[in-house]
């Protein structure tokens, strides 16, 4: 473990990790919101909210850098012609995000029914679509 | 590391019994005066204390920011603590820019200025307060009244500058007109501002943020078109060239930070049907 000061923009494995965690955070946001609402209605909300905690394992600067790189990536994806050269940390940072996205896509494929991200890589459809299919089967 | 999370380093002027004596707005803020005076009044005795500063240079501003610490630390959940050490850098700027003080006496009745170490003997809270007033620039409170400029993005500032015989004039509605920033300007700022350091390793919860004064001043000099409300040599400030060479760095930094903080989808305003 490195105990010195780490330059976030050049720590590409850290950026990939942060990107993965942000994607996981976005995927689990609805469930997390439900838990937080339940916690607020309980007798000891502080304790429960603390247990829910944060899934972020890195210093905050990693998530800010990933946010910048994702926004830059989306500008480039829109086909905007840039009049400047990207520097190596930006290029390699965007590659780290692309690697994180590929890993996230493998770990959480989309549901064949509704397109929602699935919990496991071996899942084919989400619970809601399975329930709907079962209900439709019973009706027939 | 000594840290304070308070923007005014925990100084409460009310407890010290001092106040700024604001006077009605004069016509133009004179950027090129030889001395800047910060004055405040002791509420109990009614006596005035005056701190006379040399003009604040770009080197002073860089020294001010280089001795500032801005860090964030994540607490439980996703809440964030901001650690901003504003004491060291404020005192450093005072030390660099102060020229003399008026209204401070020693126990034997002599003027404090007779001491070789007079800077150190001025009460710390007065040094902090005087410097905070010296650098204080804020977005105008009545910015909703700004007209729409067909070609430029407009930022309006309020600031104290220098005391006269009647107190500290408060300049309001100091206008800065900018070329609207492009993606290149956006990228320049964010590529720089996200170059943080994780102190204690990547998994530490503490992030040290870069100082943005340099990139803000560069962006100001690239984007400024004109300013209103300032004077040089007794004449209203001219166009872009004078803004680049004569504008106070704290005004540049504040104006640019406001320009880039504006929501991209238009300003959020409270509008009422009539």
In short:
The complex is a heterodimer of chains A (140) and B (274). Chain A has 140 residues and is mainly α.
C-alpha Rg of chain B (nearest Å): 20 Å
Total helices of chain A: the number is: 6
Q: What is the total domain count of chain B?
A: 1
Continuous helix count of chain B: 9
Question: Largest contact between protein chains?
Answer: A-B, 36 and 29 residues
- The proportion of residues in beta strands of chain A is under 5%
What's the helical proportion of residues of chain B?
25-40%
Question: What structural class should be given to the helix and strand makeup of chain B?
Answer: alpha+beta
Shape of chain A: flat
Series of H and E elements of chain B = HEEEEEHEEHEHHEEEHEEHEEEHH
* Gyration radius from CA atoms of chain A, angstroms: 19 Å
On the 0 to 100 scale, the average pLDDT of chain A is 88
Write up what this structure looks like.
- By secondary structure, chain A is mainly α.
- Chain A is built from 6 helices and 1 strand.
- Helix content of chain A is 62%, strand content 2%.
- The longest helix of chain A has 20 residues.
- Chain A is flat and about 60 Å long.
- The model of chain A has no long low-confidence stretch (mean pLDDT 88).
- Chain B has 274 residues and is an alpha+beta fold.
- In chain B, the strands form 4 sheets. In chain B, strands 2, 9, 10, 11 and 14 form a 5-stranded mixed β-sheet that branches. In chain B, strands 1-4-5-8 form a 4-stranded antiparallel β-sheet. Chain B has a 4-stranded antiparallel β-sheet with strand order 7-6-13-12.
- Chain B is globular, with a radius of gyration of 20 Å.
- The N terminus of chain B is likely disordered.
- The chains are: A mainly alpha (140), B alpha+beta (274).
- Chains A and B meet through strand 1, helix 3 and helix 4 of A and strand 6, helix 6, strand 12 and strand 13 of B.
- Strand 1 of chain A pairs antiparallel with strand 12 of chain B, so a sheet runs across the interface.
